[in-house]
Automatic annotation (TrEMBL):
Pfam families: OpuAC
Regions annotated as coiled coil: none
Record SUPFAM superfamilies: Periplasmic binding protein-like II (SSF53850)
Signal sequence, renumbered to the chain: 1-21
Protein's organism: Shewanella sediminis (strain HAW-EB3)
GO MF term list: transmembrane transporter activity
Residue ranges of domain ABC-type glycine betaine transport system substrate-binding in the record: 27-308
UniProt-listed InterPro entries: ABC_Gly_betaine_transp_sub-bd
A GO cellular-component term linked to this record: ATP-binding cassette (ABC) transporter complex
Keyword entries, A-Z: Signal
Protein name: Conserved hypothetical ABC transporter, substrate binding protein
Amino acid sequence: MKSMILIGGLLLSSATHQAFAEEQCGKVTIADMNWSSASLIANVDRFILEHGYGCEAELIPGDTMPTSTSMVEKGEPDIAPEIWSNSVKELIERGVSDKRLTIAGNSLSEGGEEGFWVPQYMVDKDPSLTTIEGIIAKVKTFEHPEDPDRGAFYGCPAGWGCQLSAENLYRALKLSDAGFDLIDPGSGAGLSGSIARAYEREKPWFGYYWAPTAVLGKYKMAKVDFGSGTDADHFRDCIAKVECAEPKVTMYPSALVQTVTTTAFAEKSTREFEYLGTRSLTNAQMNGLLAWMEDNQADGNIAAEYFLMNHEDTWLKWVPADVAAKVKAAIEAL
C-alpha cells in the first residue's frame, strides 16, 4: 500500500512538474525589423508573449538577410515576426530542411500585394477603369505632367527591385504604343506624393504601388486587372529580372510574408508557437494601422499599444481565454 501511495505521489509530482514546465516560457528574443509593419507586429508579439504567456520577451534589431542568416547559423533570435520569404527563399528552405527553422504561419494572411492602381473615385465614375483595356481606352485622361499628347504611367523608383517588374510589365502591356510614358517618380516619397496630390484634387492617376503601406491605408485605390491571371513562373524567370527579352502579361503574384522561428523555440514553446501560427493580419487591416502610425508619427511600440487597445476583436481570436484575460489586464494597466 505504501509503495502504491509513493508511486502515485511520484506520478502526480511528475505531472505537476511537466504542467508547470509547459507554462514556463523563459527568455524569448524577437527580431524588430526596420520597417513599420514588421516593428508593429514584433511589438504586439512582445506584449502578448510577455503579459499573456509569461515570457521574458526581448526585442533585438533585425533585417531580412542578417536575421535569417543568424537564425540558421546561430539559432537566434527565436522569432522573426515578418519575413518576406521570397527575398531569402533559398536560405529559409535550407533552414527548414536542416531542421533549424520552422514556419509558424503567415503574418500577412493575403501576402504582400503589388500591382498597377487607379484611385477609387475614378472607378466609381467609370467602372471600366478596373481593367487594362479600360485604362488604355482613356489614355488621354491620365494627364502627362509635361506632354499633353501623352498619358502618364508612374513606375517604381529607379534602383528599387520593383523597377524591373514595373518596366517589364509596361513593355508587356505595350503601354508606350497605347500612348503612355513611363514616369520615374525619383523616390518612394515622390511616388507616394504623386498619389497624395492626385487625391487632394481628385485628379486621374495610374501607376505602380504595393501593400501593405500607409498610402493605401489613407487613399482608397483600385487594382487594375490585366485579364491575364498570374503566371508566377514567368514572373520569377523574366518579369522580375533585368534580362527579360520577351515579357508576357501577368498579374503580380502575392509575396509570401511569414512568421519564422527557430526549431528549438517551436519544440520548446508549443503554446507560444501556436499563438504565432494563429496571429495574422489582412492587408486592409495593416494598411489602416500603417496610416495611423504615419499620421501620429508612432513607432512600433506605440502602435502596438494602440492596436491592442482599439482592435480587441482582432487579437482575441489569436489567443485562448486564459491568455486573453492576462493581456486585457496588462492593457488596462497601461
